[in-house]
Amino acid sequence: MSSVPSPKSMMAANRGPTVFFEHAVAMSCTNGVYCLTLAAGSPIPLQDGRLGQELIGVGQIHGTRHALTELRIAIDRILNVKLPHELDPHGEGSGRSRMGSETSPKH
After folding, report:
1. How far apart are CA 29 and CA 58, in angstroms?
2. 99 vs 66, 73, 104, 105, CA distance in Å?
3. Which of 46, 52, 79, 81 is disulfide-compatible with 97, CB 3.0–4.6 A?
4. Comparing C-alpha atoms, which of 34, 78, 40 is closest to residue 58?
C-alpha cells in the first residue's frame, strides 16, 4: 500500500451553486480583484397582454487576473467542442474537445 494520500475529487457532493446566465452585464476591477456581473432574462407581462423581458442579476464572479485568465482558457476550450450537428458528413470529428496537456494560452 502507498502512504501517499489520494487526491480528492473536484466534483465533491457539496459543490458550489450552478448559475444559468445569458449576459455579462457589468464588470469592474478594484485593487486587483476583478468582478463580472451575470444576468438572465425574466419574463414580465406588459400592459398590452404581451410578454416582455427584463434582466435580473443572477450572480457575480470575483477573481484575480490569473483566475480570470484560467476561466477564459476553460471557456475557449468548451467553445471548441464540436457538437453533433457540427460534425462533417463523413463522420469526421469525435464530438470532443481537442484539449492537450497545455495549461496556458498560446500567444
Report:
1. 19
2. 20, 11, 12, 12
3. 81
4. 40
* Domain extents in the chain: 19-63, 65-107
Can you give the pLDDT at residue 85? Answer: 77
Closest CA to 34 of 78, 79, 72: 72
Residues near 33 by Cβ (< 8 Å), separated by ≥ 6?
Answer: 62, 63, 64
Q: In sequence order, what are the beta bridge partners of 53?
A: 43
Q: Provide CB contacts within 8 A for 60, sequence distance 6+.
A: 35, 36, 37, 38
Candidates 103, 94, 57; CA nearest to 76 is 103
Helix and strand tally (H, E) in the chain? Answer: 1, 3
Q: For the chain (length 107 residues), average pLDDT per consecutive 10?
A: 58 77 94 96 93 94 96 93 74 48 43
**Its pTM surpasses 0.70:** no
